[in-house]
What does this fold into?
Amino acid sequence: MKNILILSALFASALFSNAQSVSDGLLYTGQDLNGTARYRGLSGAFGALGGDLSAIGSNPASSVVFTNNYAAVSLGILGSDNTSNYFGTNTIAETSDVTINQAGGVLVFEGPENKTVSKFAMSLNYDMTRNFDNSVNARGTSPISISQYFLNNANGIALDNFIVRTGDGETVGDLYQFLGQDFGFGAQQGFLGYESFLIDSTDDSDLDNTNYVSNTGTGSFNQDYLVQTSGYSSKFSFNGALELNKKWNLGINLNSHVISMERFTSIEESNSNTDASITDVRFDNTLFTEANGFSLQLGLIGKLTENLRIGATYESPTWYTVEESQIQEIITRGTNSSEVARVRPDVLNIFAPYQLRSPGSVTGSIAYIFGKSGLLSLDYTSKDYSQMRFSPDNSDLFRNNNQIINESLERAASIRIGGEYRVQNWTLRAGYRMEESPYANKNIMDDLTGYSLGFGYTWGKTILDISYDHSERDYSQQLFDTGLNTSAGVFNEMDNIVFTLGFNL
It folds into this structure.
């Protein structure tokens, strides 16, 4: 990427940006089933069990359940399949990835005899909370052209603002940068449409004219829409826990969150409309997201009897500071298939940093231990997604986002059930989970269901665990926020294999 001009910051009122939306807020703050193979083999139902490094991220009291010092590292193999349906056409996109998705250790200290604090523990653990490597491809014939996106952004802006004064030494990049700084992201989109001849002014002789028309004609439009994401979100948990009277475990986590994501969005459109002067369009966007956040957790595990355990966890909201940047390019071709325009401003839009607060959650857990032969466990979590918030509040975009959150998101529950059966040095595991959609309208996003299987083998000081988990969910992928606001139905399936090597120290 050469000749990049760095913008100081675009206005947060970039209403038609593909960034800073409610769906992005859910994407950034959401967490997948991630962690050690044992944790995933039980579908994460560890709230009343403990004794697992990833379980510490669910319930901070888990660390003091360990009987000795322990360390582990996990390798994950991700497979994601998305089947989209766009105006009756099905398209499949597949993604795979290999990552280190967990690493950590715990130190356990025995308390003095006959003291209230019978044991305490400290631990540090890293979990990849979400792998963003994913691809969605939607193809079909739409009655709406991508030109409508540019029209919606251009209308209302005087033609004079879209004219490049080459005689004064002005470049496309100069004007694109000026529009972003003085008018916002939407004006840049209108300029891209005008400069690429995708749209025209209704009166080229009037520099004050604010009305525009499409050059893609009327009829149908063959569209190929692609979204490819890469990156991750992760959580570092700094943990401390106490065992009181060998019955009650109390713990706290201080969590540091990191998000790093790149999203490439591309749409290719063609038409054979008789009244079109532009027949082919390709519009590319690359969005870069970096964020840091903080949260805390409080947890409890109690031994009601020798076999029955309960757990409770409070997780605070996560407070993120998010920084995003974006680069764009558009190419158009005319009726003779020759390139009409290639508009690449070579300007990196840097959006003003903003704050994003995820919703907090509460979890109740219960588990039954069958001596040394096995266990059953259940977790129930409640999270009010309507509490997610964008700020600062003086932004029109963020006020609009928060209004949408209040109207469209709601409290959702998740249930995780897991079981384990031991045979000598072998352990067999299975689990099931269900996560309700955060949306009141399930057509936007449906509930997630999943199951898991796993096994482990111990050599005493060394433990190898392997798990497989599968999940699936239906959701709607909207192409653009305005103009071309059609949606593709997407059926997502995720398959993961995780290997964990653990060491009793």
Remarks:
- The longest strand covers residues 278-303.
- Residues 1-9, 11-18 have pLDDT under 50 and may be disordered.
- The radius of gyration is 26 Å.
